[in-house]
Amino acid sequence: MFVKDPAKAAQPETARVEQVTINSFDGTPIAMTVYYPALPAGQASPLLLHSHGFGGSRTQSLDFDEASQTSEIGIDALQLAYNQKNPVAARPGWYVISYDQRGHGDSGGTVSILDPNIEGKDFKAVLDWAEANLSHLGYRNKNNAPNPVVGTIGRSYGGAFQLMGAGVDNRVDAMVPDGTWYDLRYSLDPQGVPKTAYLDGLVAAGAQSNRGRYAPFLLQGLLEANTTGTVDDTIVKRLGSQGSISYCDLSANLPNGMTLKSDIPALFIQGAKDVLFNIREGIQNFECYRRVNQNSKVIFTKYGHTLNSLYIQNDPAADLAGTGAKYAFNESLIWLKTNASACPASLYDTKTGRCVIPLKDMMFQFLVQHLIGQQQANSADYLGFDPVPLPEVTAVLEDGQKDPTAIAVKTNASGKPDLDEKGAPSDFTAPTQVVTGIAGFPSGLSSTQGSQLAQPIFVDLNNTQQQGCFVGVPKATVKVDPVGPLGSPEPPIVFVGLGIKRADGTQQVLHDQITPIKGYGTFNLDLPGISVLLKAGDKITLNLQGYNPVFLTSFNRVPVPVMVSASVTLPAKVQDSAGLCAQ
């Protein structure tokens, strides 16, 4: 890594923080906080670019106590990169820029949900400014030309900005998208049923930062979702072009000049209980990027976007009480089942045979590997901590524990993770009657006492009482038939998912996940992704609901009975390097 202009880097860089506003391509002001590290004369340093979640704003200070940081995992990694608090002597600090997306915080304009032709150009403008103004910015030769060394990090909307940015700009060298989408049509409007609890919640959460600064098409879509239960096709199509799906099909004509960069390794982090972007989207993102870069990795955690504030899900912070982890969008610790030789001695729990790893260390080590080099990623002197295991696929398993065990998923005979492989389908269940709409209490998940009142229906499956680890995307064929000759005057909406019944008889909706089906007929669909350990006596069940609060206003206004039967195909059992899954 070298500085592009040695004359500009002839003077030392002084550690400081500046608030900077630039004008984007159309004159819109974009607000940034720029962290300049302390650097000696001539020292080159990479840039770590960060942005916030939807309705949030940039990070204007890294002066916090890491031990109590609970706003979002990822900012902890910024603190490590900047290297001003508890500095590591052998590691020069990195430049850090955190910026307000268009329509957020102190930036101008209106929100367009990361349109490559709008927010994508803002991304370019930020990097243009960095090249022009960061005198010690490091460069490497890329495609026979100097190219700045740039990493990106952020969660949710701040994860998607990275995928968009990497699709429009070749100056990104590594990225860590946390809890983000692959296809917004699936995330927000699955099967044509709007996920209105989150749509409304995101708008409400952004009231202070966004102050209503939404592009007109977004306000139109929100109004339609809450009043008609549908969203105009042109809006759905536009949202569908603003994610990885729009450029992961390498055979397609790519929209908006986007391309999938073959030289960008990505570490995806996705939560099993994330009711906005579930594991399925993390798998799709990972598989997309891994096709063109074998260094891409994925971590499945337990949490993510939750609705505990609406009492639909348990409070993750309460769930993690006593474990040593803190909830900061995702849990802060990964309890990886591994051999003692693969784990730093200070992190190894001999009683459980697990390596208890801070998630921020895994993220930072990944960035070091691809922005600085493998030698530094293996060096405790450079990292400031002993190098930690960073498997290709790390899956936190639903195993009934507060501190759930994670595994390193082994690759199959072809050298790929087993996430694509499927087991045998179950027989069709007997038809079960479900009343659609609000026929009782308006709740449908089962992790809270109040939501049990909705009485989700659990139906046994004949292929799921087997021990082992299941990580991947289940598939289902579901038949919805009318009761009686007339049926419903409106297309019935039924919610389908998986449940888990433990050996002691307790049962719940697996990962709090559910997906809608709208209309009569036979439907072939992917269910939300799963990451679960089944022990002796445990089994997966089919879960049916007539209403679900995640879809708040999307339901049949007149309750109507339907008959539902289904066949479910689980992902094939995976194996892990520590042998936990070999049951």
UniProtKB/TrEMBL annotation:
Q: Which domain of life is it from?
A: Bacteria
Q: Which UniProt keywords apply?
A: Hydrolase
Record-annotated Xaa-Pro dipeptidyl-peptidase-like domain positions: 26-306
Q: Which Pfam families match?
A: Peptidase_S15
Q: Which Gene3D superfamilies match?
A: alpha/beta hydrolase (3.40.50.1820)
Q: InterPro entries annotated for this entry? A: AB_hydrolase_fold, FrsA_esterase, Xaa-Pro-like_dom
> Can you say what this protein is called?
Xaa-Pro dipeptidyl-peptidase-like domain-containing protein
| Source organism per UniProt | Limnobacter litoralis
List the top taxonomic levels of the source: Bacteria, Pseudomonadati, Pseudomonadota, Betaproteobacteria, Burkholderiales
